[in-house]
Structure formats: C-alpha cells, structure tokens
Amino acid sequence: MASAAAEGGEGSEANAKWLDAYYDPLANLYTFSSCVALADLQGDGENQLVVGDLGTGLYNMKLKVYKGTTMLSDNTLIDLPTGVVTFLMDTNEPRTPAVAVASGPYIYIYKNLRPYFKFTLPPLQVNSLEQDVWNQVKEDKIDPLTLKEMLESLRDKAEVPLSARSLRYLMLEPPEMDGFVNLHKQQPIKRQTVITCIATLKKNMADEDAVGCLVIGTESMEVCILDPEAFTIQAKQ
C-alpha cells in the first residue's frame, strides 16, 4: 500500500507540471498526428495549428486552421486527408508557407489560407489483357460469368495488377453482375493509386526558410518528389 501511495504521489506531481492551455470538449476534431502541423502562416512570428479534420469519416471532412483558440480558416475537403504538411514554395516576400493536404490521389495546395492548386497523381499502367477482356464485353462477345472466370485467371497470373473496377467485379454475386457490366462496360479502364504519406525535403539549401519539395508515398509502393513551383514529378522511385 505504501508503494502504491508513493507511485500515486509521483504521478500527481508529474501531472501538476502540465498546463492545459486550451480545452474544448465540443471542438469535435477527429484527426491523426500525420494530419496536424504548426506553421507561421501569416508571417507575424506566431505559429498556427493546421488540422486535417476527418469529420465523421464519411462526410464533413475539413481543413481547419487555428490561431490560439480562434479558428481562422475552414475549408471543405472532398475526401479523407492522409497527411498535412507546410512548406515554402517560393522566395517571395513575405516568407509565408503554403499548406499541402494529401487526399486520395490528390494534393491540395493552399496559399494564404485559400485554395491555390490541385495536383493529381498520374494514372498507372493498365493490364493489356484485362483491357482486351473488357473490350470483348463491350462488343457483347462474352457473358458476365465468362468475364468473371477470365478476370480470376488474370488476377492470379498477371504481372500488372487488375484495376479497381475488375477487383470490385470479382466480389459480386451473379444477380449483381449484369447491372455492373451494363453500367461500366462503355467506360475506359483506369488504374489510379492513392497517397498514403507525405513529407517535405529542402530543394537547394538546408536553411530553415529554404524552398521545399513535397515527398509523397503511394499505395503502389512509389516515392515521388514534386517540384514546388510547377508541381511536376522531379524524381520517382
């Protein structure tokens, strides 16, 4: 009992060293550490808190910026954010950083707390055999059951992964196949990856106020470095 009391005393003393600068049980922020950043966005020497709010997880996703306890900006996001970073994209004065929000296959750039630019990841290579199979469906040369069998064979053997459309089709039961085929067979096949993480890298100098490049990691196991001015891919691995 004495030992427990001593431990309790030490815990109380440690907790007493912390100060709750701001506490709001109704803030309703749902986010992760990868979607939180601090930056002097107004050039006044004070950092603002930048938060990618996941909302409910299905809707009401927003980019929120706080200065102290006041929310300065509230921008709607169309998809769940996976990362938020701040970086200097030019040498213009005042030296205020931009905000980059990774969401799906896109990076949304905000300058002066306003939407500035949207970068889209380039599409991935489509499996040529998969394309041929869907072309046969488009021309009514094969039925939905045969399509499923051919796609299953391609999934197990092909070097290039199948598109999201084909993978979704393989999850369907026969009653749902006809409607899915009729809805999608006239549309071109696309393979699009998504961004899973984002960071920054100084472009030319290591100075704190140097221009930075965006570094993104994708679900397709690629790392891309983006030029901060033209937002083109400088390097990819």
Structure description:
The chain contains 5 helices and 12 strands. The chain is α+β, with helices and mostly antiparallel strands and 237 residues long. The protein folds into 2 domains: 24-122 and 195-236, YVTN repeat-like/Quinoprotein amine dehydrogenase (Methylamine Dehydrogenase, Chain H, 7 Propeller); 128-184, no CATH class. The longest helix has 15 residues, at 2-16. It is elongated, with a radius of gyration of 24 Å.
Radius of gyration: 24 Å
Mean pLDDT across residues: 88
Please give the number of β-strands: 12
- CATH superfamily grouping of the largest domain: YVTN repeat-like/Quinoprotein amine dehydrogenase
Number of domains: 2
Give the N-to-C terminal Cα separation: 59 Å
User: What is the level-2 CATH architecture name of the largest domain?
Assistant: 7 Propeller
CATH topology group of the largest domain: Methylamine Dehydrogenase, Chain H
Q: H/E order of the elements?
A: HEEEEEEEEHHHHEEEE
Shape: elongated
CATH class of the largest domain: Mainly Beta
Characterize the biggest β-sheet: 4 strands, antiparallel
> What share of the residues does DSSP label as strand, in percent?
25-35%
Helix content: 10-25%
Strand order of the largest sheet: 1-2-3-4
Based on helices, strands and strand pairing, what is the structural class?
alpha+beta
Which consecutive residue ranges, at least 5 long each, have pLDDT under 50?
1-7
Treating each run of at least 4 consecutive H or I residues as one helix, how many helices?
5
